[in-house]
Amino acid sequence: MKQRRFSTMKNPPDKADLRRELIAARRTMPPDVKSQADERIIAALSAWLESHQARSLGGYLAMAGEPELLPLYQSLAARGIVLAMPVVLEKQRPLVYQRWLPGEPLARDASGTMAPARRDELMQPEVMLAPCIGFNAQAYRLGYGGGYFDRTLAQFPRPKALGIAYKTTRVDFAPDAHDIPLDLIITD
To answer: CA angle, 60 as apex, 56 and 62 as ends, to 5°?
Structure first.
C-alpha cells in the first residue's frame, strides 16, 4: 500500500471516495505484512502508555482490516490497566466506554458495531484510541463518517486521544469544521 498525497491535485477526492480507497487498500495487505505492522503499532503504543503511566485505556475492537490490538489488551489487563471499549448507545451522540476484559461477550450496539454486551460499568478512560482509516499531517482523523469520535472529543473533560493507523494511510485532506484533531497518531 503506497502512501497517497492529494495536495497537488486541483480537486482532491471527497472523503467518501478516500475512505473507500483506503479501506480497500488496507484489506488487501498481505497477512504477514499486516501482522508485522500490527506488532510495530503494539510496541509503539505499549511504550507510549508505559512512559505516560496510563491507568485506563479506551480501546477499540478492530474491524475492516484495522490494526488488531487484542494482544496488547491482554497484556495491559494482566498488568492491571483498566480497559474499556466504545459503545454507541444512541446515534448522533458521543461514545460511552464500557469497562471490558478480553474474552468478555460482545453484542452489536446502536450503530451496528460490535461492543461489550454489558452496559453496566460505564467509565471515562484516561486515554482513548481512535482507529484511523486515514490521517493528515495535522493529526486529523479520517474515520467512517459517523462523527462519534469527534462528538466524544468535543466533551469536557476530554481524554488524551491517540489515533492508530498504518503509516501508509497518511493522506492530505482538509478537515471539516466539526473535525477535532487527535493528540497523537501512532503508526507502524
So the answer is: 145
